[in-house]
Design goal:
Structural class: alpha/beta
Radius of gyration: 26 Å
Largest sheet: 7 strands, mixed
Helix content: 40-55%
Strand order of the largest sheet: 7-6-8-9-10-14-15
Number of strands: 15
Shape: globular
Strand content: 15-25%
Distance between the termini: 72 Å
Number of helices: 13
Oligomer: single chain
Order of helices and strands: HEHEHEHEHEHEHEHEHEHEHHHEEEEE
């Protein structure tokens, strides 16, 4: 009898143990925030990791990942963590279209990329059809001329950039005899169109208008034409690695023309391979590691600590682009792609609201961006800021999105 009672107590004790364990588990489950039980929000990084644009694409990828790391350390977006995956376009526009289709299979909330304008022009329509917001590092004016409500630029297009560029060349440098050398693709052609337009608005024209090819190695014929034109200033508008080669050859030829450019001439990814040949180049740039803006200085420091290299403008654009997504989602109050797209249009986003934006920025109805910028000169293989340029337009209005 006693044995039976003991067995009964054993079963009862076991039952209590199971009930107690379940209760403890329930308490622990309640103690974990509901948001942490939700799957992470995926962001696709689609960029140029091999081919001619590899240096650019890797800057973009690394900065997106740094931004995601920073955001996750602070609790994510609306309490949810971000997660990235990366796909390589091989710096080839047709390949970028196929790669975008592969990215859709992972159901990302947003796509960050591509960087080369020729690729973005090729792939932006299928991304629009998928309804996934696309944040790009491209700057060609062709992007905003297509009236695509799904594309958002992390820096201004040539429509804004070249307006600032020409104003600086004419008013500050007093440049009169200007030769233009540009790369013959979507990026270069768009820049050329805007550059010539704003020069014409000021009653000026170029003394030489010369195209080059992507990944071109020898620029001797083009530079010979520049010399023959009698130009005092050479507007260099190729990709970074091409600019480095052109500048090396310009110095070897002993040319005295003053090299000027936009962001790609004075980017660190052009300076590193170009070396001393890049010294003396002057540029209007959207973003630079030489900036004294505290938030940009801090991002520069942390990027170098993590990756062991100086961030170029593509890194800044990628970092800002990731925080653009965060700022819009939080202003909407939900992970709603349609509402986020609407929120990003005709809206002012400030660094006070979202420090990761680094500077105040306005996004217009076509996804183009207006923000402050810089005039730099390359000295001792480093860009040095000589002037800060304000927004081209404004004042702009901050709009609620809920």
């Amino acid at each position: 009898m006693l044995r039976i009672v003991c067995r009964g107590r054993s079963r009862f004790t076991k039952t209590l143990g199971l009930v107690g364990s379940a209760a403890v588990a329930a308490v622990l489950l309640l103690a974990v925030p509901a948001s942490s039980q939700q799957p992470p929000i995926k962001l696709a990084i689609v960029a140029e990791f091999t081919g001619g644009g590899a240096a650019v694409g890797m800057m973009w990828r690394d900065a997106v990942n740094l931004a995601v790391e920073d955001i996750n350390k602070k609790g994510g977006v609306l309490g949810r963590r971000l997660e990235t995956f990366a796909l390589d376009t091989q710096t080839d526009p047709p390949t970028s279209v196929a790669v975008m289709r592969r990215a859709f299979n992972e159901h990302p909330f947003a796509i960050l990329g591509t960087v080369y304008s020729s690729s973005t022009v090729a792939n932006m329509d299928i991304v629009r059809q998928a309804g996934i917001p696309q944040i790009t590092g491209s700057e060609s004016v062709l992007l905003v001329q297509k009236s695509n409500p799904n594309i958002f630029l992390t820096a201004f297009t040539q429509q804004i950039g070249m307006a600032k560029q020409v104003r600086w060349l004419v008013e500050d440098l007093k440049a009169d005899k200007i030769a233009l050398v540009y790369v013959n693709n979507a990026f270069g052609r768009g820049g050329r169109e805007m550059f010539l337009k704003f020069l014409k608005d000021r009653g000026k024209s170029v003394v030489a208008d010369i195209s080059t090819e992507p990944q071109q190695a020898d620029f001797t014929p083009e530079l010979t034409r520049v010399r023959a034109s009698g130009a005092t200033h050479l507007m260099v508008y190729n990709h970074e690695e091409e600019n480095a080669r052109l500048m090396t050859q310009l110095r070897k030829l002993g040319m005295t023309v003053e090299p000027v450019g936009e962001t790609t001439l004075c980017a660190q990814t052009a300076i590193d391979p170009g070396g001393d040949a890049m010294n003396g180049s002057k540029c209007h740039v959207g973003m630079t590691a030489a900036s004294t803006v505290p938030s940009m200085v801090d991002m520069n420091r942390r990027f170098q600590e993590k990756y062991g290299k100086v961030p170029d403008h593509n890194a800044y654009k990628a970092y800002i682009g990731t925080h653009m997504v965060k700022a819009a989602v939080e202003r909407v109050g939900a992970f709603d792609q349609a509402k986020v797209r609407d929120c990003l249009h005709n809206n002012l986003f400030t660094a006070a609201e979202e420090p990761g934006l680094l500077m105040d920025m306005y996004v217009d109805d076509k996804g183009d961006t207006d923000r402050g910028s810089f005039i730099v000169e390359v000295k001792d293989r480093k860009p040095q800021v000589s002037k800060v340029v304000g927004m081209l337009g404004g004042p702009y209005t901050k709009r609620a999105c809920r």
